[in-house]
Amino acid sequence: MLALLPAVADGIRREADRISRENFCDCNAGDVYMVAMIHWDHDGSARPSDLIGSIYTTSAGVTGSLKRLEAAGYVERRKTPKDGRVYLAVVTEAGRRTVESAAPAFNNLASTVTAGLDDSDIERLSTMAERYLATTLGG
């Protein structure tokens, strides 16, 4: 069982990265997921610190993703009105269009990965993944 996990994770990551490259230039799946989180879960803008726990990455990972996404034109940094030292990552129109057009491909990947699993299987798999990520990321 344990020997299967790296192979499955690697296969899913490769497919997610392929979808990402086809839709988002040179961005990886983690970068695309960050645009999606900002767009859908944070109404288009978020402080980088708000993204750390929700996307299972470190602050350095968030910073790197945001730099790549900004260079590609999918997000931009804007200072907050209340405190000019703090900035928000804001999804651009190009980022919005691209993440919305790529969503069906990612949903299809999720459906393929979970095909044949019932709700309790998915719940157990999610719990296992969350525990692992919390342990490895110190969360």
Concise synopsis of the structure shown:
65% of the residues lie in helices and 9% in strands. With 139 residues, the chain is mostly helical. A 3-stranded antiparallel sheet has the order 1-3-2.
Walk me through what this model shows.
The protein is mainly alpha-helical. The protein has one domain: Arc Repressor Mutant, subunit A, CATH 1.10.10.10. Helices cover 65% and strands 9% of the residues. A 3-stranded antiparallel β-sheet has the order 1-3-2. α1 runs antiparallel to α5.
Coarse structural class: mainly alpha
Q: Distance between the terminal alpha carbons, to the nearest Å?
A: 25 Å
How is the CATH topology named? Arc Repressor Mutant, subunit A
Please give the domain count.
1
Q: What's the layout of helices and strands?
A:
Elements: H1 4-23, H2 29-41, E1 45-46, H3 48-51, H4 59-72, E2 75-79, E3 87-91, H5 93-114, H6 119-136
Antiparallel strand pairs: 1-3, 2-3
